[in-house]
Amino acid sequence: MQLLDKMEEENIPKTAITYNAAISSCEKGIVPQKAYEVFRRMQNEGIAPSAVSYSALISAAEKGGQWKLALDILGEMKENGHLGNDVAYSATISALSKGLRWEIALQLFRELQASGRQPSIVTYNATMTALEKSLQWERALDLFDEMKLNSLPITVVSYGSAICACDKGRQYRQCLEFLDEMTEMGIEKNVIIFGAAKSCMEKCHRADIGLLLMERMRKEGISPNVHCYTSVISACARSDMWEKGHELYLELETVFSFSPR
């Protein structure tokens, strides 16, 4: 904003590119209200926003968790003759995910498909996350199957959402299948993937598998975090494997040099 004011003081003409850069700067600083002010200032000065301008503002709204603003700007973007691009749709869907508005997120996803445009892997991932976060785990897994049918390049983020959906739905067998698929496809797992898988085992009272996953993590060079430990310890308690759970508890205290009590 200060740069724009300085340009105005020195009568330096501002362009759409100038304003787009300013909006993007606000997005990176997670100040959506400032991005909105810059956007309106751009319009008030008679400079028509481009698709890039709208997308940058929607991304700023998403970063700030303002799903209503993101949705309104996407609507305005379409009203002004700009076809909502994949970036705009995926950012809006991500904002809706944070607001647990899965119905609108799925509606936007289908709208993008109905327009004849193939959603990108980013948009699929964002929609899957919106669904699983709102406990719509079956819909999330259906979308994951759809990704595969469309031969999209499945990523670790895709599998992460799918495994989180299994966790929500207590589908431990499907969860294990996904872990095996990742190995077969050469997709590296991370602590978040294993954490969600162990959480699923905890909910399903499968401490035996949770313990095996701890070993599998170590073999793959991934160090368990506190969440991984506590999920398996809880699973042991539910499965009457208190001795093993106590061993892990002592290990947790040693590894992290603190008591979680």
Explain what this protein looks like in three dimensions.
By secondary structure, the protein is mainly α. About 75% of the residues lie in helices and about 0% in strands. The chain contains 15 helices and no strands. The chain has helices at about 1-10, 15-30, 30-45, 50-65, 65-80, 85-100, 100-115, 120-135, 135-150, 155-170, 170-185, 190-205, 205-220, 225-240, 240-255. It is elongated.
Helix and strand layout, with pairings?
Layout: H1 2-9, H2 16-28, H3 32-44, H4 51-63, H5 67-79, H6 86-98, H7 102-114, H8 121-133, H9 137-149, H10 156-169, H11 172-185, H12 191-203, H13 207-219, H14 226-238, H15 242-256
Helix pairs in contact: 2-3, 2-4, 3-4, 4-5, 4-6, 5-6, 6-7, 6-8, 7-8, 8-9, 8-10, 9-10, 10-11, 10-12, 12-13, 12-14, 13-14, 14-15
Shape: elongated
| Secondary structural class | mainly alpha
C-alpha end-to-end distance: 48 Å
Residue-averaged pLDDT, rounded?
Answer: 88
Largest sheet: none
Write the element-wise H/E pattern from the N-terminal end onward: HHHHHHHHHHHHHHH
Poorly predicted regions:
none
Q: What is the number of beta strands?
A: 0
Strand content: under 5%
Over all CA atoms, what is the radius of gyration? 23 Å
Helix content: over 70%
**Tally of DSSP helical segments:** 15
